[in-house]
Amino acid sequence: MILGFAAGVVATAGLLASLPDSALQVAMATTQKSAPVKLSPTKALPERDTYFPGTEDLSPDGMRITACGTGMPSARPKQAAACFLVELGNGDKFLFDIGSGSHERIAAMKIPYDYLDKVFIGHLHVDHYGDLPTFWLGGTTMNRLTPLRIWGPSGSKPEYGTQYAMDRMQEMYVWDIGTRSGVIDFRGGKLDVTEFPFDGVNAVIYNENGVVIRSIPAIHGLDGAVNFILEWNGMKFVYGSDTYPNKWYNEYAKGADFAIHECLT
């Protein structure tokens, strides 16, 4: 996986590509630093190499990107599969992919689940949405009281699309859903699925609260894989979600403040 960021963008977690899952802060204005934390019994690391969830303020016009998963299809103790959390200064939070093992990292951040209600799936490989069931149903026991909103691409056939996968996921967990009925408030167990055409080029798939998210086709396996572009407050974040180098990425990722290009060979 290759990550890139433009000059002027601040990365507070140090190098990422070769390290376990970490967090990055993208600040286009003021970056507020947390108070120094003494690490014991190990030798304290420079502040630029450490990040403690919940201790860094996010400025109203800033963007924070947290790598919840950067690894291979089979999750490891120190590295989950693909998952990136993007938090904006306006309060919005977005999950891009939610691969195997990533729910543990998300839960460890202790963000209320009602704030984590938007998931964008780049394609339907297990290492890119394998932890969606536990995040969906596990979130109901953690007091998510809003429907879980999911965006994902169509496929060359209906059964290759996101809507088909989400419908079958709900069928698969019908027993789990049944045990919760009448026991907990199950509003958070509802799914709001938006399937968009996989072949849309720079097509707007989300436009709310000043945030615009577009999709471009990706080259990865069957038809039905996409990359995402998020734009807000003059900042641009591009998420590859597995793709072979292609003309769409080369054209529409230009000018990004932070770009992720992920590939598996």
Helical residue percent band = 10-25%
Provide the CATH top-level class. Answer: Alpha Beta
* Assembly context of the chains: single chain
Number of strands: 13
The side-by-side strand order for the widest beta sheet comes to 2-3-4-5-6-7-8
Radius of gyration, in angstroms, nearest whole number: 18 Å
Which descriptor suits the 3D outline?
globular
Strand content range? 25-35%
The major β-sheet equals: 7 strands, mixed
CATH architectural type: 4-Layer Sandwich
Order of helices and strands: EEEEEHEHHEHHEEEEEHE
| CATH superfamily caption | Ribonuclease Z/Hydroxyacylglutathione hydrolase-like
Which structural class should the secondary elements be placed in?
Answer: alpha/beta
Average pLDDT for all residues: 84
Continuous helix count:
6
| Low confidence ranges | 4-19, 22-34, 36-42
Number of domains: 1
- The fold-level CATH name is Metallo-beta-lactamase, Chain A
The CA-CA distance between the termini, in Å, is: 10 Å
Can you describe this structure?
- The protein is an alpha/beta fold and 265 residues long.
- The chain has a single domain (2-33, 45-261), classed as Ribonuclease Z/Hydroxyacylglutathione hydrolase-like (Metallo-beta-lactamase, Chain A).
- The chain contains six helices and 13 strands.
- Mean pLDDT is 84; it is low at 4-19, 22-34 and 36-42.
Brief synopsis:
The protein is an alpha/beta fold and 265 residues long. Helix content is 17%, strand content 26%.
